[in-house]
Amino acid sequence: MPSPSKTAAAALALLALSSAVTADAPAAAAATKPDDAAASAAKPLWKPSTVTLPAGSLGEQFASVADFEKHWIPSRASKEDVPAGEKDATEDADLWRYRGQWAVEEATETVGAHAGDLGLVLKSAAAHHAISRALPHPITFDGHDAVTVQYEVKLQNGLECGGAYLKLLSHDASKPYDPATFSDKTPYTIMFGPDKCGATNKVHFIFRHKNKKTGKIVEHHLKNPPSVPSTYSKETHLYTLIVHPEKNTFEIKIDGVSKQTGSLLDDFEPPVVAPKEIDDPNDKKPADWVDEAKIPDPKAAKPADWDEDAPLEIEDADATMPADWLENELEYIPDPDAKQPEDWDAEEDGEWVAPTVANPKCAEASGCGPWKRPMKRNPDYKGKWAAPLIDNPAYKGPWAPRKIANPDYVDEKHPGYMTPIGAVGFELWTMQNNIHFDNILVSDSVNAATLDQWTKDTWEVKHTAEEVLTKADEPEKAKDVDADADEIVKSINQLTFGDIAEQLTPASFVKFAQKALVDPAKAAASLPITAGAAGLSVAAVIAFILALLTGPSAADKKKQKVQSAAAKKKKDDDADADEAEVEQEEEEEENEEPAAKASPKKASPAKTTKRPAKEATSEDDE
After folding, report:
1. Distance between CA atoms of 502 and 511, rounded to whole angstroms?
2. Spatial separation of the C-alpha atoms in residues 168 and 418, rounded to whole Å
3. Alpha-carbon distance 603 to 376, whole Å?
4. Extended strands (E) in 458-580
5. Rounded to an integer, what distance in angstroms lies between the CA atom of residue 201 and that of residue 204?
6. Which residues are listed as membrane-spanning (predicted)?
7. CA-to-CA distance for 455 and 459, rounded, in angstroms?
8. DSSP SS3 for 74
9. According to CATH, where is 2.60.120.200 located in the chain?
10. DSSP calls for 264-321
């Protein structure tokens, strides 16, 4: 059985353990985080996929910084679709400019098992970003079985509010594409990828379709898009969109798992095929059109016995006061345990009155104070009278405008034949930075086997390594904490009373501080009592500072003041009631005096006792 001294030491050591583990976290991270050069040397080099993609396909693996700088061009434009008045009102002209920075670098969170795995990284928080590159050849939809879009996203700092979607920009055969002018108004064919902010949490699939009859271009949004995977996960997620132009169908996959399939004709809003007929905008409802189906009966009359003024509730005349009702007891009484605060100033704070508490006698009875009959539903209550409704003889039914042929209607059979794609780009605004993009594939002719091999070479290798590291990291952290705890407990069990006293000397605190700077956990293990005492001292200082800042004594004083004022008000109200009763008795006696003088009988002496009127106090003035 441990000695009392060791029991007390254990209590102090609990705080030492928690403090040491918390303080040790940054140091441990620094100690276990390898030098970048050493880490790269310890890991095998990343091997880009060597799968042969069909001619004209884009397979962007960001193999080198030089290759990135050659093809990917940041926009020098500014966002154009700005809410009315905001662009002119802002003092920062750069706010709407695409000033967000981009870089090609390795991921820094949940690092994979390979060195040199570069990706495109969005570097700036709370900024507009735009970057794009032209495709080797335009991607077309006509005559192709499948158009595939796939890319990876790693949210290294999570995603609270922002987008990580990819735009497939429309090809214009009349002029070459200029990445420097890329903006929110640049025409695109498909927008696909994650977006989250507030209530918005979706994987967008939007395509722009040109009406063959009118030439209008309309954005069609997927009605029920899938949600974004955990925006707090720092693992790499894979987004895949496959459009089948001939079948007018699509499929969305996340991390290789099919999340949604559907029709380009039926699952988008607004629908690709407009209705054949629409309401005539020039048709107006006639002034004499009656669309009220029911009207009050004009022949109905209020019954003679209908009392509109009868109250909803009346006193229950059959109710009787419970036998244990305490009429002479107050529901609330002065708190017998309350004491006037030592710093109470009668001149400043007024007369102190004890706060009231619930009368304990009332808890054992049906109630206290004057008894009143309860209310009950009035059987004669009918409320306001209104005539009953009858069928309206003039009713013509609900009015609707007449239908006319829709000028925008066209029998669209192949919405999957979309505008060719000439470039890809990211045009984003986000509150979080360090979003890592990688392995972008866009093709109009890649088959399932080639796509599967590309995915295995890129995302699956990375995903497997990240899963292993994530799962391995949890037990290691728990193991370190358990080891520190065991070491501290072991040290406590070996302590004697003299050891405890020695660890509370000034020299021990200095020694502990020196060790803690190097390794907090080991310092707590070697000097657990010192660590615990130091932790308690810090906690006490923090509590004292908070007390000075928040002023609890002032709050207590104010509370006492409010309670005292409430109690005094109740006391004064009771005195006013007694005074009114005495005055009423005196008035009755004065009315009886003429009769008493005329009567031969001796009049009874009048009551002359009267309560003094209450004096004004500072509480009343307040």
Report:
1. 12
2. 11
3. 47
4. none
5. 9
6. 527-549
7. 5
8. strand
9. 58-82+90-277+414-467
10. TTTSEES-SS--SEEE-TT----TT----SEEE-TT----TT--TT--SEEE-TT---
Angle among Cα 92, 94, 97 to the nearest 5 degrees reads: 145
* Cβ–Cβ < 8 Å for 532, 500: no
Structure tokens given for 162: 């922002």
C-beta of residue 78 within 8 angstroms of C-beta of residue 96? yes
3-state secondary structure of 68: helix
Quick check: 203 and 250 in contact, CB under 8 A? no
In this predicted model, what pLDDT tens digit does every residue of 326-380 receive, in sequence order? Answer: 999 999 999 999 999 999 999 999 999 999 999 999 999 999 999 999 999 999 9
Measured between alpha carbons, how far is 6 from 529 in angstroms, rounded to an integer?
A: 10
Nearest CA to 412 among 260, 216, 191?
216
Element (H, E) at 246: none
The half-sphere exposure of 445 on its side-chain side, counting CA atoms within 13 A, is 12
Q: In this structure, are residues 208 and 188 in contact, taking their beta carbons and an 8 Å threshold?
A: yes
Query: Which long-range CB contacts under 8 A does 551-559 form with residues at least 24 apart?
Result: 553/343, 556/341, 557/341, 557/343, 557/344, 557/349
Q: Does domain 58-82+90-277+414-467 have CATH number 2.60.40.10?
A: no
Alpha-carbon distance 132 to 111, whole Å? 26
CA distance 518 to 524: 12
Distance CA 457, CA 454 (A): 5
pLDDT band at 4 (very low <50, low <70, confident <90, very high): very low
Assigned token pair, 98: 């695409």
pLDDT tens for each residue of 513-564: 766 655 666 667 677 777 777 777 766 766 666 555 554 444 454 445 545 5
Q: Which of 209, 218, 122, 145 is nearest to 425 (CA)?
A: 122
Place of tokens 């009567």: 599
pTM confidence score: 0.58
